[in-house]
Design a protein that fits this description.
Layout (H helix, E strand, L loop, with lengths): L4 H9 L2 E6 L25 H4 L2 H6 L1 H17 L4 H12 L2 E6 L5 H5 L4 E3 L2 E8 L5 E2 L20 E5 L8 H12 L3 E5 L11 H7 L3 E5 L12 E3 L3 H13 L1
Parallel strand pairs: 1-2, 1-7, 2-3, 7-8, 8-9
Antiparallel strand pairs: 4-5, 4-6
Helix pairs in contact: 5-9, 7-8
The structure holds 2'-O-acetyl adenosine-5-diphosphoribose.
Length: 245
């Protein structure tokens, strides 16, 4: 697919760039998205039973089994061409912030530095009572449900669950990046989950251009300046190559 020259010029002349990413960014690494295919994580599962504080209270072993399996799959995966291209693009502009809804750590493993983990981090444990960060006692968990060594409450994965607020410092940082960017590349997100799906419009209101990179139409497709239909692992490296030429 030929890339719009106007978009390439816009990226080339950008001083500040935001990349707003979702599960589709890691799809080419073999990790399942949440929605859209029979493999997707929410296709035949109920998020209420796996990713809420009530789920942890009701069946902590089930919640931990599921999250440990996600950790195992994320660790076994390797960053793909799209992650690498984001690192390349970031090096070509003065300031690039990547706001990701992904909790898999693949962007950081690809070498990305200015990453806002909007929905937290799968590899961090938190106390379910105080929300403080807890270093797991052992690399290989032995208990079915790990507990806080300070207060004894069950630990929880350090990800944002359904119905929970985004950490205020994280939200502020993300909004500030969108408020002061020249453009946003929205990559691999269905844009169905708030408040992440409102960030592109924050940037738009501040005068930024928006480009969507996704093989499928999303809730924001009709309100962006450029729609690039295809896989992130093809399109992002193509943009980086053109800028490098
Ligand atoms: P979704 O699963 O909702 O959407 C994934 C998007 O990636 C879809 O629009 C796909 O078309 C697109 N996609 C698939 N393969 C792609 C590829 N190779 N290249 C580019 N795009 C591709 O995932 P998110 O939008 O990230 O929240 O989901 C948002 C949030 O919902 C997640 O962070 C998670 C979930 O519930 C929490 O856990 C709080």
């Amino acid at each position: 697919m030929p890339l719009p020259a106007e978009l390439v010029n816009r990226v080339r002349s950008a001083n500040a760039l935001v990349v707003l990413s979702g599960a589709g960014l890691s799809a080419d690494s073999g990790l399942a998205t949440f929605r859209g295919t029979a493999r997707s994580l929410w296709h035949n599962r109920r998020p209420e039973e796996l990713a809420t504080p009530a789920a942890l209270a009701n069946d902590p072993e089930l919640v931990w089994r599921w999250h440990r399996e996600r950790r195992r799959l994320a660790l076994a995966a390797t960053p793909n061409r799209a992650h690498a291209a984001i690192v390349e693009l970031a090096a070509m502009v003065n300031r690039c912030v990547t706001i990701t809804q992904n909790v898999d750590g693949l962007l950081q493993r690809a070498g990305a530095t200015d990453v806002i983990e909007f929905h937290g981090n799968l590899f961090l444990d938190r106390c379910s009572r105080t929300n403080s960060e807890c270093v797991p006692e052992r690399a290989e968990p032995t208990a079915a449900v790990p507990h806080c060594t300070q207060c004894g409450a069950a630990l929880r994965p350090g990800v944002v669950w359904f119905g929970e607020m985004i950490d205020s410092a994280v939200l502020e940082h993300a909004v500030a990046a969108c408020d002061s960017t020249d453009g946003v590349l929205v990559v691999g997100t269905s844009a169905t989950v708030a408040p992440a799906n409102a960030l592109a419009s924050v940037a738009r209101r501040a005068g930024a251009w928006i480009a969507e990179i996704n093989p499928a139409e999303t809730t924001i497709s009709r309100s962006v300046d450029h729609v690039l239909r295809g896989q992130a692992g093809d399109i992002l490296p193509a943009i980086a190559d053109l800028l490098d030429a």
